[in-house]
Amino acid sequence: MHAISRTITAIAVAAVTTLALAMAAAASTPTRAAAPPTITSIPTIEGPAYNPFVGDKLTASSGHWTDNPTSYAYHWDRCDALGSRRNCVPIASATSQSYKLGNADADHTLRVRVTATNADGSTTEDSKGTGIVSKRKASPTNKQRPSISGSAVVGSTLTLTDGIWAGAASYTRRWQRCNQDGKRCSAIKDATGKTYDVRGGDAGHKLRAVVTAKNKWGKRRSNSNLTPVVKASEATTTTTPAPTPPPQKGGSCAATSLTPPARMLIDRWSFSPPVVTKATRAFTARIHVSEVTSGCSVSGAQIWTTAIPYNQVGVVQTITGGDGWAKATFTITGGFPANPGRQQILVILVRATRPGGNPLAGVSTVRVLSEKVSLR
Fold first, then answer.
1. Which domain holds residue 221?
2. Tens-level pLDDT at each residue, the chain (376 residues)
3. Are residues 258 and 371 in the same domain?
4. Measuring CA to CA, which residue among 370, 373, 235, 236 is closest to residue 305?
């Protein structure tokens, strides 16, 4: 009887031990991914990607992914000088993680497509484009001329973009004042930055900027567009008028006449084009400023804008006209899109303030606007 009891006990212990081992093995077995990899940080191109020359070697990073990729594949694309994804073609046999630039790549930009694979499938994501590939021993060449944005009004700020160049290692800038025909241009003293505050002496003239691109083999110059003839601003009059109450209903009122408790309001706006796509290089916003209590349209209000997150578009400063409207033209920069493949809006922070006033208090105002984005 005791032998039978010991046998039953041994069988029970063995069964429990087997079950425990099976449960432990199941718990230690890695869980297979339930979806293909998802990108969290896009691939990048390492090496002289910003200023590449024929003969340089570029290397792709795989980026960062979720869902445990087990392998990566690479394919390099040759694109147009502007770097548009729509104008890219695969380079035959360029499927290694590294790529050496050849003569056929001159005057083009490059991207790399990375495909991440796990047991549940594959996902492909491409990098941002390189700079324009230049031939060795060649001075810079301009592919898109510099441009000026902002209002040609005394007291406003103009912003210069350097344009698109091949082979440029550095840039210098010089603002010039021209006659009303856009001729007889002369350099403006100490005006060598990417922005320029329009001065009283500019009234009645056109402005432009000259950008000089350099590398170790030489330098090239390119002129920007000419601004319209600069107009004088109410903010530049030699006498300061005594503050007057804004009109009671509608009409217009000068920003310089507003004092607390009056307050500005950004009440209307529109974008053209209404949707930013992959191919969009610039877009324009029309912004209207009124006074909260009276509803008058505020003229001479200083407008400052920037994208959130920063560096998706250029910072624009302008000033409202007599009808309370201001126009701001935004140039797409390297930080766009902030979220490749998923971004649906481009957020623009806009601030309106009285000339010389406190941008965070007084009669000033801040508003967040959103422009639609379609990256498909």
1. 138-233
2. 555 455 544 544 454 455 444 455 444 455 554 799 999 999 999 988 888 999 999 999 999 999 999 999 999 999 988 777 788 999 999 999 999 999 999 989 999 999 999 999 999 999 988 989 998 888 998 988 999 999 999 989 999 999 988 888 899 999 999 999 999 999 999 999 999 999 888 999 999 999 999 998 899 999 999 999 999 864 444 444 444 444 445 688 999 988 888 889 999 999 999 888 888 889 999 999 999 888 899 999 999 999 888 889 988 999 999 899 999 999 998 888 888 778 888 899 999 999 887 777 788 999 999 898 888 7
3. yes
4. 370
Compute the distance between CA of residue 201 and CA of residue 232 in angstroms, rounded to an integer. Answer: 9
Domain boundary (172, 207, 233) is at 233
250 and 375 fall within a common domain: yes
Strand 88-90 with 71-79, pairing: antiparallel
User: Which residues have CB under 8 Å from 249's CB, separation 6+?
Assistant: 294, 295
End-to-end CA distance of the chain: 80
For the domain that residue 337 is a member of, what is the CATH number? 2.60.40.10
327 and 275 in a common domain: yes
For residue 268, being part of any structural domain is answered with yes
- Under 8 Å between Cβ of 203 and 154: yes
pTM exceeding 0.85: no
Q: Which of 233, 260, 285 is the last residue of a domain?
A: 233
Between the CA of residue 128 and those of 83, 84, 100, 111, what are the distances in Å? Answer: 8, 10, 18, 6
**What is the CATH number for 144?**
2.60.40.2700
